[in-house]
Amino acid sequence: MATVPLTYTIAHRVFHELARGFFDFRIVGADRLDFAGPALICCNHASFLDPPFIGQAFPMPIHFFARKTLFDNPVLGWLLRRWQVIPIDRDKPDAASLKTTIRMLKQGEKVLMFPEGTRCTDGELLPARAGVGLFIAKSRAPVLPVRMYG
Predict the structure, then answer these.
(1) What is the total count of domains within the chain?
(2) ∠ CA(109), CA(112), CA(116), 5° rounding?
(3) Digit-coded pLDDT (tens) for 3-34
């Protein structure tokens, strides 16, 4: 993100306070999150709060995917567009999201992805959806594995 939108900065701070104040959010290996250059952050998906909680853990802005239908909500859609969230159709993935992601990674950005493609609330990992390897192979960006508990 060349310039960080004010809405992202505010949300980053709000979720930082929520994560630590109400959810006992802890980071193991926080020193590994502050680095220059691109990264494809791959994490399990346990809660709808995963993207903002993972985002607030990084000292720099990160991008993430969101289900395309979330953009239909006028307020949420406006915020997601401001934060440069990448819309994805889980049923019919298109080339646009792949191209956008690869462009962002080649520009040195960090992108959060949930390889499972959906939330799994029982703590078990689901199989990764087809296409995850394509993002890795096409972008050649380093992969940063992240695990959420709780």
Answers:
(1) 1
(2) 150
(3) 888 988 888 899 888 888 888 788 888 788 88
Are 149 and 103 in contact, with CB atoms under 8 Å apart?
no
Domain span at residue 80 reads 6-146
Residue 1 in any domain: the answer is no
Residue 81 lies in a domain: yes
Cβ count within 10 A of residue 74: 8
Nearest Cα to Cα of residue 117 among 131, 104, 100: 131
Going from the C-alpha of 143 to that of each of 33, 93, 125, the distances in angstroms are 12, 21, 18
- Residues facing residue 113 across a β-bridge: 42
Pick out the chain residues at pLDDT < 70.
Answer: 1-2, 118-119, 123, 150
Q: Is residue 97 part of a domain?
A: yes
CATH classification of the domain holding 84: 3.40.1130.10
User: Could you count the other beta carbons within 10 Å of the beta carbon of residue 123?
Assistant: 10
Contacts of 5 (CB under 8 A, 6+ apart): 82, 83
Evaluated on CA atoms 140, 135, 48, 66, the torsion sign reads positive
Distance between CA atoms of residues 139 and 150, nearest Å: 31
